[in-house]
Amino acid sequence: MFQYIVRRLLLAIPVLFGILLVTFVLARLIPGDPCKAILGEKATREVCERFIHEHGLDKPIYVQFGIYMRDVLKGDFGDSIRYSRPVSVILIERLPMTIELGLIAIFLAVVVGIPLGIISAVYSNSLADIITMVIANIGVSMPVYWLGLMLAYVFALLLKDTPFWLPPSGRLSAGLAAVPFYEVYNLVSDPESLKFHIYEFISNMYILNSLITFDWRILWDAIQHLILPAVALCTIPMSIIARMTRSSMLEVLGLDYIRTARAKGLPKPKVVFKHAFRNALLPVFTIIGLELGTIFAGAVLTETIFGLAGVGRMLYEAITARDYPIVQAFTLVIAIGYVGMNLLVDLSYVLIDPRIKLD
Amino acid sequence: MATTTEEPPPPETKLESYKQADRIALNHSFQDYRANSLWRLMLRRIFHQRSAIVGMVILGTLILIAIFAPLIAPYDPEQVLIGVEPVKKRQAPCIHLLGCPADQPQHWMGIDGNVRDQFSRVIYGTRVSLFIGFTTIGFAILVGTVLGAVAGYAGGWVDNVIMRLMDVLMAFPSLLLAIAIVNVLGRGLQNALLAIAIVNIPIYARVVRASVLSLKEQNFVEASRALGAGPLWLLFARILPNALSPLIVQGTLGIAGAILEAAALSFLGLGAQPPTPEWGSMLGSERNQVFTAPHLVFYPGLAIMITVLAFNLLGDGLRDALDPRLSFHKSEQTI
Model's pTM, two decimal places? Predict the structure, then answer.
C-alpha cells in the first residue's frame, strides 16, 4: 500500500512539471512585446528595459523557465495588470467561492447520479431505466451556460412570488454581509501573517464560515444563492456518473458470484449494495475524478452567468481584459488542482479496493 | 435473401438480436461472395441499436437542414430588418398558427438584438456547428493517429516522449486549455477550432497507440512482414484499418464534445465573432436579456443540445454495436 502511494506520488511529478512547462510556453508564445503585454501599451522604453531585466527576460530561455519555476514554487505569480495587485492575493479571495461551488456540485452529482445508475442497472430495460438514460443522455448534451440561464429564467422570474423563488445572481442578498469567523472570535491581529491568509481563505467560503459562526440566516441565504449554479454545474457530471454506475453495475451483476449470492438466498438489497456495488465502485470513482475537470471548466461559464466572484469568472474577465498574468496563474492553479484531485482519487482506491494493497 | 418462411422469430434479448443479426449476415455472405461481410455485419449491428438509429435520424435531418439552409431560412441570417418590416428589436416570436395576427410578418423564433430573424440564424448555425465538429475532430484524428501510430510502432523513447506530452495535455480540463490556447493565438473562429483540435489530439493518439500495440504482434501482421512489407505499409495497410472501429466511436463522441466546447468558447466571446450565425455566440451576446427576451437564449441552446445529443446517441450506439463484449454483459442480466 505504501509502495503504491509513493509510486503514484512520483508519477505525478513529471505531469506537474509538464503543466508548468506548458503554461510557461503558452505565456511566451503570446505575440508581441512581453513588457507591453504586461505593463500596458503606455510603458516607456526605460520602464520596459528595467522590467525585462528584473524579470530576467534578457536571459536564455531555460534560465527564464528556471526563474518561472522558482517564482511559482514561492507562490509568486506576478501582479495583475488590471488590478495592480499580486495575483496570489486575488487567488485567495476568489478560490474559496469556486471550491465551495465545485464541492456542492460534485456532491449533488454523486448523490443523485449513483442511485440513478444503480436503479437503472438493477431494473435494466424497465421504464425507469429508459427514462433515467434518456435524462442522462440529454444531461450530457446540454450546454452548462444555457441550462444556467434557463434555470435562472424559470426560478427567478417565472416562479417569482412563490416559495420556489431562487436568486439569479450574487453570493448573498443585498444588505447581508458575512462576518468572517476570525473577527467574530477575535482570532488574528496581524493581517500580514500566513495564519491570517489561511483564515481569510476559509472565511471566504460563506457556507463554512456561517457554520462556524452559527449564523443561520447567512447560511440559508448563501445556500439559496448556490442552488441554481450548483444544479447547472452538476448536470453533466451527474449524467456521466449515472451512466458509468449503470454500465459498471451491469457488468458486475452479470458475474457468477452475484448469482451465487442470490442462489444462497441473500436478500436482493444486500446483494446489490454489499456484493455488487462495492465492486462496481472503482470505475465510478475514476470518472468522478475526471469529472472534476468538467466542474472546473464549467465554473468559468456558471460563475459568469450567475455573477459569482470566483476563479472562473475572474478568468473570463481576465481574458476579456487581456490580463495575462491572471490567465496564466489561474490556468496553472486549476490544472494543478485537477491533477491533485485525481491523485487523491487514485490514492483512495486503496480504501475501496483491498486488492491494491497486494501490489 | 432469406424468404419469409425462414424468417426467425423476433429476438427476446439483445444477445439474441445480435446472434440473429449475425446469422442473417452469415446467410448473406454465403450467398453473395462479393459482400464485404465485416462491414455488412457492422452495419447490421448498428441498425439494431436504438440509440444509434435515433442519433442517425437526428443527424441526417441536421445535415439536410445545413445543406438546404438557404431554402429553409426565410431571411438572410445577416440581414437587418430595420426599414424592411415593421419589427422591433428583440421582438417575441410571431407564429401565425399560434394566433399571431396575420398582418404581422411571421418570425418563428422572434427577432434578435440586431433586428435579424432569429429562425434564419439558427438554421444557418447548423452549418457552422457541423463544420466545427467535423473539421476539429478530423484534424485531431489525423494528427492523433500519426502520433499514436508512431508512438505505438516505434516504442522506446519515442513512445515515452510522445505519450508523456499527451499526458500533460490531458492534465488540463479541456475547455480551460482551449481558453489558454485561444488566449495566445487571439480570438476568432479559426483559432478556436485549432485550439479545440489540439486539445482533442491526445484522446486519438491514445486510442491508436493502444490498437497498434495490440495489433503489431499479431500473426497477420507478422505474415505480412515476413513477405517483405515495409513498416509504413504494415502501419497503414495492415494495422490502422483494424484500429478503425474505436476511432470511429471516439470520433463520433468527440464531435459532440467539440461542438459543445466551440459553442462555449464562442459564448465567452473567444470563438466565432459577430455577425457569424454561431449558436454559442448568439447565446452569449443575448445572455443579459434572458429575462426580457428568453427566446433569444432558448432556441440557440436547444439547437446546440439537439446536435450534441445526436452525436452522443450515435456514438453510444456505435460503441455498443462495434464492441460486442460490452453489450453481451448488458444483456446477460440475471438479477
Answer: 0.85
